[in-house]
Amino acid sequence: MTTEKDLNRLADTSYWVDKGKENIPFNPKKGMILTPKTIKGLTQPYKVLKVEDNTKNGMQAMAVAPIKNGVVDTSEVIIAYAGTNFDDNLDRLTDATTVVGGNMDLSIPQWWGSPEKIEGQAVTAQKFATSIKESYPKALVTTTGHSLGEYLAIYIAAENQWKNTGFNGPDPYTILSDEAKKWVKDNPGLLVNYRNKHDKIGNFGGNKTGAAILLDASKGGYNPIKSLDYHDLSAWQFDKSGNLVAPGRSSRDSRLAQMEATTSYQLWNLSVLSDNLRKSHGGLSSSEEIFINSGEALIVLNGASTVMEDGLTTVMKDYQQAITEAEELWRETVERAQGIGMDLSHDEVIEALASGGATQRSIVGETTTFYEQKMDSAKRMLDEYRVLMSEIKASIDQQVAKDQQLAKEIQF
Questions:
Q1: Which of 98, 145, 336, 379 is the one with CA 20 to 30 A from 360?
Q2: Which SUPFAM superfamilies does this chain map to (predicted)?
């Protein structure tokens, strides 16, 4: 899967689609190869599948596919939507009309008469997404964007039941269809909108989609003079694996949040695969058909079980470690207090600590309860995953049994 670092870079590159934007290296075009040399920070090359620079309403979008071992892998497609170009009147009008006002159409002022009503960026963003879905019907699509671009990217992901990971986006819940609102509610963790807690622009609209992950990327605390910096894509930092990390937040917490989101996403994809296989009728003529039409079957066959088991096991170990650390913190707190109040009994030391707000319940009990609930959730997720894997494997085995050619080509 594409890393969060690459999604950050692709979100930034989508701004370059705007032919009216100044001081950019180039305008991405269909067929162009984006590489770590041409796009600073990319970890792998991508081929541009399609771009759109809509001069009527100001919407820009770019669809790309990763290049793996020299081959364009269109089983995975990323759609990046551009955010606000403050020099573009149409972008500013979209911010006011759609993001703030919740109106899907734009009214373009005309000096000679009444305003012209046209399709807004959300409408043409969906048309762009539809064209990608039609061109690559079996692709696993992820949307990304920044600011207005992430607003559109979340909207598109929710309406099409895709994954989203983006940055600093206002929440588009007010323009979602009822079906999309239900999907968002039923599938938490598939939409990830990284927000800087000091970013006034990106935090607009609340968080009814549940997509927001609020982090402190301010590097030294809030400074009103740098308020726009908190909305910048460059404020986000990434580790060597391309995962987002934030100052003031432990690497363990970052890893756990990312693992939970990834696990939820993979579980949802596997459930979709399971449903598709259940609905399948008749035999399959080739391995290509079962792989492409099922979408995620290749992941199953290439070791998704091991990855998921290891990932969830790691999460539960980290939760247990957090409990152990809380217990150790309480023990050290009591020992230090006893060292200071050497004339006090153990009970008197505990009472003195409690008067200052430090109790075993607040340090150990609440932490233990929190992480035990997390562990229970992870265990349920693991059990659910195992059931899904069993169902999927049984369905694939049934398909193979119906088709001797497939049985010869694939060894289970």
A1: 379
A2: alpha/beta-Hydrolases (SSF53474)
Q: How far apart are the C-alpha atoms of 390 and 338, rounded to whole Å? A: 55
pLDDT per residue over 1-14, tens digit each?
Answer: 788 999 999 999 99
For residue 165, the number of C-alpha atoms closer than 13 Å in the C-beta half-sphere is: 21
CB burial readout 102-112, b (16+ within 10 A) else e: ebeebeeeeee
Task: Please determine, for residue 160, whether its predicted confidence score (pLDDT) is greater than 80.
Answer: yes
Cα–Cα distance measured from residue 253 to residue 219, given in angstroms and rounded to the nearest whole number: 18
DSSP characters over 303-370: THHHHHHHHHHHHHHHHHHHHHHHHHHHHHHHHHHHHH-TTS-HHHHHHHHHHTT--HIIIIIHHHHH
Amino acid letter for position 16: W
| Predicted confidence (pLDDT) per residue in 16-73, tens digit | 999 988 889 999 999 999 999 999 999 999 999 999 999 999 899 999 999 999 999 9
N- to C-terminal Cα separation, the chain = 24
Q: CA 116: distance to chain centroid?
A: 36
Place of tokens 């009970």: 347
pLDDT at position 320: 78
Which residues are bridge partners to 51 per DSSP? 62
Q: Which two three-digit tokens encode residue 30?
A: 């269909």
Distance CA 199, CA 378 (A): 32
CA dist 174 and 127 (Å) reads 19
Residue 189 pLDDT level (bands cut at 50, 70, 90): confident
Residue 335 pLDDT greater than 90, yes or no: no
Neighbour tally for 286: CB within 10 Å: 13
Contacts of 275 (CB under 8 A, 6+ apart): none
> Would you call 135 helix, strand, or coil by DSSP?
helix
Among all chains, which residue has been given the structure tokens 């939760």?
319
* pLDDT value at 301 more than 50: no
Burial code (b: 16+ CB inside 10 Å, e: under 16) for 240-277 equals eebbbbbeeeeeeebbbbbbbbbbbbbbbbbbebbebb
Q: Rounded to the nearest 10 degrees, how much is the dihedral formed by the CA atoms of 186, 188, 191, 197?
A: 130
For position 326, what pLDDT does the model report?
Answer: 73
